[in-house]
Amino acid sequence: MSFPVRAITLDLDDTLWPFAPIGERIERVLDEWMREHSPATAAMFPIPEMRALRDRVFAENPQLIHDLSTLRRMTLQRALSESGGDPALADAAYDAFHAARNQVDCYPDSIDALARIAAHLPVAALTNGNADLQLIGLAGHFRFQLGAREHGAAKPEPSIFHAACERLGVAPAEVLHVGDDVEMDVVGAARAGLRTCWINRDGRPWPHRDPQPDLHFETLAALADWLDAHSHRRPDTAAA
């Protein structure tokens, strides 16, 4: 399949790196931090209870689902308050979370593939999460990073895809969105008028539903190969 692509929007979690190890690290780091700085909180909210509290805070605040950082802060503030700890510690606890959140181990193919893709076309990161590409050290491959918190709405809302296309200076029909999530990335982007690429590292079957992805690869390297084969090159007319 061949079609015009003048820019890429790229998901981060579970596309460039697996999120599960990050989530486990976050829980461990926060537990250790609480044990040192607020033992009563650690005793009342060991890892399973802190996870359950986080889930409750998320469920009670659906209007903030685009702002995972605020929801995380609210979780930490509530844990400290309910355990008799000092709520003023929430900022320092969040800093520990943020540092752990941005320790990522990319998939083996990701960094080389990202460099190859960015050599072809302008790439924008488009994420519902709170990864910080500057802190991670990959920002140089991207034209910009647009997060759901910054935008005010999360994927699969069409507006976040359209905002990225506008900043890229490219019509949605000529932007390829790349990601792992069927609903958030493929269906959401397609309904917003973008071309789509499903990165399916687990070899899952596509659910029997439309719209289906324009491209389907098991690795990001395979997408870079496809761009090589179809001679996509960075257009002079893309927005700076």
Automatic annotation (TrEMBL):
GO molecular function, one term: hydrolase activity
Keyword Phosphoprotein assigned: no
Presence of the UniProt keyword Hydrolase in the record: yes
Top-level lineage group: Bacteria
Keywords from the named record: Hydrolase
Coiled coil: none
Entry-linked PANTHER family: HALOACID DEHALOGENASE, TYPE II (AFU_ORTHOLOGUE AFUA_2G07750)-RELATED (PTHR43316:SF3), HYDROLASE, HALOACID DELAHOGENASE-RELATED (PTHR43316)
Protein name: HAD-IA family hydrolase
Lineage summary: Bacteria, Pseudomonadati, Pseudomonadota, Gammaproteobacteria, Lysobacterales
